[in-house]
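Why show two proteins at once? Because comparison is the fastest way to build intuition. When a single record is shown, students tend to memorize it. When two are placed side by side, the eye starts asking what differs. So, the first record is below.
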Amino acid sequence: MRLDFAGRTALVTGAAQGIGRAIAESLLAAGAKVHLADIAPIAWNADGVYVTHQVDLGERAAVQRLIADVGALDILVNAAGGVRGQVGGPIENVDEASWRAIFAANVDSAFWLGQAASTPMRKAGYGRIVTISSGAGLRPSLTGIQAYTAAKHALVGLTKQLSQDLGPFGITCNSVAPGFVRSNPTTERQWLTYSPGKQAQLVESIHTRRLGTAQDIANAVLFLASEQAGWISGQILSVDGGRS
């Protein structure tokens, strides 16, 4: 099965590095025009047609301006999020600002984007929305960060609600829930905090006996964004080597 996105326009958030970058590069390679958005500067070269946007996706007005700049939009991939530099700790130490920062990055951004993107997609009668949730959205998180677990669970629920709300307009909404992927400085630091024994234990808990890669996640996203996935919506696809 060959996935061809020629003539399609995609917006990938969190595209400066890691999973978001792998998704953007894969869409470019498959022929899409890709808009890249991130709160951090985006500086990379790739083959294909792409446009970069530096934006805080937790701000509704900024997201609305972004979607207006993009114009016609066929595919939205919400890969922005993460732990915002936080680490796990006792629940009594979690302050309001830390809690809200993770929700703004992982949940608020996904809602504002889905809300704004639904306008051009409904007008076209076509759309693919794919969120990047996490195994932490289905069970307690390995990070130990309470806000991250709660936010990813909320993102799973939001994805299913968007599927119901937007499905009648030809828009599918699904989520990919990655397992542990060493794809950026944050996940690399987390991996290095584990003892050799804990690292081995984690790998042994995965059916395929290996950690995932950003490309593993990108491959799943491209399928859900494709024509071939037109009757798949409201689903959460665990891409974790069988750990779940």
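Second record. Ask yourself what differs from the first in the token line.
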Amino acid sequence: MNVYDFEVKDIFGKTVSLREYAGKVLLIINSATHCGFTAQYNDLEALYAAYRDAGFEILDFPCNQFGGQAPGTEAEISTFCRTRFGIAFPQFAKVDVNGPNACPLFTWLKEQKGFAGFDRSHPLAMPMHQTLLQADPDYEKKPDIKWNFTKFLIDRSGNVVARFEPIDSLAAIEDAINELL
């Protein structure tokens, strides 16, 4: 099984086979429009602009599971992202990434690359750790997505090769993308 075995709904409700992205390097993200990490859209769009002609795609899935930070309809989210950040990469329907209603794609992604911890040198690592620890003392042992802007890097064969947490360096993500391109 690989990422191409999944179908998802795009931001307009149309079913899309991820087989359409076969042979490309993919960065699949769960995003939110009202999150402290939302400014990452600027860097993500810059990555997309720099590498899309080399066979790179970002697939953006809004998720409202973390603090209700992706309110609004898909149309509102799309408009916000296009007008505020100039997003040109594909966006998909709002999904759950954890729990009983999790999108099958994200369930599979988590099975391939579970949570491996936060970069403890980042200034937000300890506050995130404390917040998550209060909600679930065993959070570190679970593969669940911990917050908005978790990213999964997929190689040209459809395999998950890396998982990046919201506080991971965009430079490290870019280096990993370059290796695959």
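One difference worth noting in the second protein: The longest helix spans residues 40-51.
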